Amino acid sequence: MDWREKLARTSGEREADNRLSAISAMLTWAVDRGHANANYLRGFKRLYHADRSEIIWFPEHIASFMKVAPIELQRALILGLHTGQREGDLLRLPWSAYDGVSISLRQGKARRGGRLGPLVKIPCTAALRRMLDGMERISLLILTTKTGQSLKKRYFNLLWNGAMKKAGLETVLLPGSDQPVKLHFHDLRGTAVTQLSEAGCTTQQIATITGHSLKTVHFILERYLARTRGLAEQAIFNFENSSRTKFANNCKPSPILQQ
Fold first, then answer.
1. What's the CA gap between 124 and 65, in Å, rounded?
2. Do 231 and 138 contact (CB within 8 A), yes or no?
3. What pTM value is reported for the model?
4. Is 175 helix (H, G, I), strand (E, B) or coil?
5. Which residues contact 65 (CB under 8 A, 6 or more apart)?
6. Dist. CA 57–CA 12, nearest whole Å
7. Are 213 and 207 within 8 A, CB to CB?
8. Other residues' Cβ atoms within 10 Å of the Cβ of residue 252
9. What are the angstrom distances between the C-alpha of 75 and each of 67, 129, 176, 195?
10. I need a labelling partner for 202 at 20 to 30 A (CA). Which of 20, 35, 58, 194 fits?
11. pLDDT tier for residue 56 given thresholds of 50, 70 and 90
């Protein structure tokens, strides 16, 4: 642990945690094979905490990106926004996962430890269907380079960062914040959750689309919805148009009769 603290000062907290995770994996291997009695690093407290709470893409961010990004990145953004899936899962997404109506996939993150991820079936929006149906299938994968090659993570991130810079989105100032933040592709996942909620979807409905647990959806909504006005505006619209609140909407001040 002392070594990690020294490493954190020279290479950063995230790298220091990663090194300790590697040692923990070795200790687990040793315990499983009888070479050590226990892994005392199991579940160690991390120094680095990545907090992306409340960071979402707003319509103006998406519009700026779509104006300058190459077509393959525009397609990636639309897929992310309309499915709420992770970058890695979308880069691996084959055409066979799309049946003309919905997309079916197993999320890669849940495969860790040899377990298959949950099967997520996402009904496609009309906009997403139009995009997919209008694409030429030049590869087994949906998202590819201009020449039909698979988009490797490092190359995709290089292209993505270049487009973000060109769009002026390297850092943005979100409503209610006094500190600029950098938008990531992964923030589209939280944006999709927020959009679904503002469209009136329940927590259970959102979870079936994005693959989050119900607990995680609740957490995301508590954090992200503070940035948006959609639900508040919808609530007032419902208030004004419900027969149950007619009495409140008919309330108005009247002049007091003078004696």
1. 22
2. no
3. 0.71
4. coil
5. 73, 74, 77, 163, 164, 167, 169
6. 28
7. yes
8. 5
9. 13, 12, 30, 18
10. 58
11. confident
